[in-house]
Every structure is written in C-alpha cells, then in structure tokens.
C-alpha cells in the first residue's frame, strides 16, 4: 500500500525519536539509573504525586526530576523545594517531551549532579493524554495517571497511553463519594487494553494507596540495579 507523505513523515519522526530514546536509555543504564516517564492529562495530579514521592523516598534514594511544561517553571519550582536536582524543559507549542528534549535535560543534570550517584530520574511529561505516549524518551517504565474526575471511558477513548503503561495510578479517589464513577469499571476498561499493568488507586490528599506506589517504585529501582550487575 502506498503511504501518504504525512504517514511516512510520522514514521520517520518516530524512528528518529526511538534512536534518541535508545541513546538516552544507554546513558541511564551506564549510570545504573532507573528512569520513569510520568504521563497524564492536565490536572490529573502528576506534580503532587511527585511531591509526595520526593518527600517519601529522597531520604533513601537519590532522585532527580526532568520537568516538562509548555511555558512555565511553576511545577519545577514546586519540586525544587524538596532539595533534589530539577531540570525544567519548556516545550513551547509542543504537546509532549521527545527524546531530544530529554537528552538536553540529561546533559543539564550532568552539570548539577553526578548522575552515577542517582537511583531514579522522574520525567514529568507535558499534560496530554495522546502525544506523550507516542514518543519514548529513554524510560525504563511508563507511569500513567487517570483521575476519577476524568470518567471511566478515557482508557477506551485514548488507548495508546493505557496500552503502554507499566503502572497506572487512578488518582483523586477521595472524590469518589461525590461523583458518579465506578473505579472497578475503570480497571476493567484498562484491562481490555493492557492485562499486565500494575493498577493502583491513590489519593494524594488522604495518602490512600501511596505506600503501594512507593513500594512499586522501590521494586523497579532494585530490579534495574540487579539487572545492571548481572549484565557485567
């Protein structure tokens, strides 16, 4: 079948991005650093989740953040309060981070910390349910958030992110009593697309489910360390 120019261009862009993502991951692997790509629509709770994560895990793990936003450093400034290296990337009109942008963030990190001393880099992607999932950035795991306020149908309407997620956090579950929402239906909809993702209902407001999230994070870091040791 003959491809349209737009389709061919899209394939070429994704191929070039994948090469950059592989290069980024090679850096992380060399340093023994785990990287998560944290994705969601705007307002689902990415930044507050990272705030809770930095507060809980920074005493035990060396963490850094690459923070993607279209125009401001508002979220980056919130995370800098936790005394970890935070690199801000403004994407302008782009609705996602790509591998080249994150490569720039990695080089900035090298100027402010020794990457070999890090355990985990958290990439907070631009708020968007579509584009971020299409462009890998070198991550070892994709973390998606879906707030209960967004509705049960979003995994079916925007499947790519939920198909790709290694971990899905269903956020703001403290609001369930005030909404016509069924968390079990959200889980079923995700399972149609992705039978293997870890699904964790959480509330940053009450703390429900956060300990399970922190444990998942620790397990991923330990797993990569063991894999890196085993490969040498």
Provide the CATH architecture. Answer: 3-Layer(aba) Sandwich
- CATH homologous group name: P-loop containing nucleotide triphosphate hydrolases
Order of helices and strands: HEHEHEHEEHHEHEH
CATH-defined topology: Rossmann fold
Number of extended strands: 7
What multimeric state do the chains show? single chain
Strand residue percentage: 15-25%
| Global Rg | 17 Å
Whole-number count of domains: 1
CATH structural class: Alpha Beta
Summarize the biggest pleated sheet.
7 strands, parallel
N- and C-termini, Cα separation: 45 Å
Mean pLDDT: 93
Portion of residues within helices: 40-55%
Structural class estimated from helices and strands: alpha/beta
Strand order of the largest sheet: 3-2-4-1-5-6-7
**Shape category:** globular
* Low-confidence sequence ranges: 1-9
SS summary, helix count: 8
Structure commentary:
It is a single chain. This protein is α/β, with parallel strands linked by helices and 232 residues long. It has one domain (5-230): Rossmann fold (3-Layer(aba) Sandwich). Helices cover 44% and strands 17% of the residues. It is built from eight helices and seven strands; from the N terminus they run αβαβαβαββααβαβα. The protein has helices at 5-31, 46-57, 74-80, 99-112, 154-157, 159-164, 183-193, 210-230; strands at 34-39, 63-69, 86-90, 120-124, 141-147, 167-171, 198-201. The protein has a seven-stranded parallel beta sheet, with helices on both faces. Strand 2 (63-69), helix 3 and strand 3 form a beta-alpha-beta unit. Helix 1 packs parallel to helix 4. 40% of the residues are buried. Mean pLDDT is 93; it is low at 1-9. Residues 37-200 form the CobW/HypB/UreG nucleotide-binding domain. GO terms for molecular function: GTP binding; GTPase activity; nickel cation binding; zinc ion binding. This is Hydrogenase accessory protein HypB.
């Amino acid at each position: 079948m003959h491809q349209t120019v737009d389709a061919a261009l899209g394939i070429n862009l994704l191929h070039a991005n994948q090469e950059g993502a592989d290069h980024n991951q090679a850096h992380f692997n060399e340093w023994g650093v785990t990287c998560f790509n944290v994705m969601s629509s705007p307002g689902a709770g990415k930044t507050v989740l990272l705030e809770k994560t930095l507060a809980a895990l920074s005493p035990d793990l060396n963490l850094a953040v690459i923070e993607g936003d279209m125009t401001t450093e508002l979220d980056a400034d919130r995370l800098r309060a936790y005394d970890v290296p935070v690199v801000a990337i403004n994407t302008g009109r782009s609705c996602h981070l790509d591998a080249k942008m994150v490569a720039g963030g990695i080089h900035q990190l090298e100027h402010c910390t020794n990457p070999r001393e890090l355990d985990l880099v958290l990439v907070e992607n631009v708020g968007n349910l579509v584009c971020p999932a299409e462009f890998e950035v070198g991550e070892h795991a994709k973390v998606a958030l879906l707030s209960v306020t967004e509705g049960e149908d979003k995994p079916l309407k925007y499947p790519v992110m939920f198909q790709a997620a290694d971990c899905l956090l269903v956020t703001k579950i403290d609001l369930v009593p005030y909404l016509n929402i069924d968390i079990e239906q959200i889980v079923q909809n995700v399972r149609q697309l992705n039978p293997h993702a870890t699904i964790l209902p959480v509330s940053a407001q009450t703390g429900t489910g956060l300990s399970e999230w922190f444990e998942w994070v620790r397990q991923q870091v330990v797993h990569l360390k063991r894999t890196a040791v085993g490969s040498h």
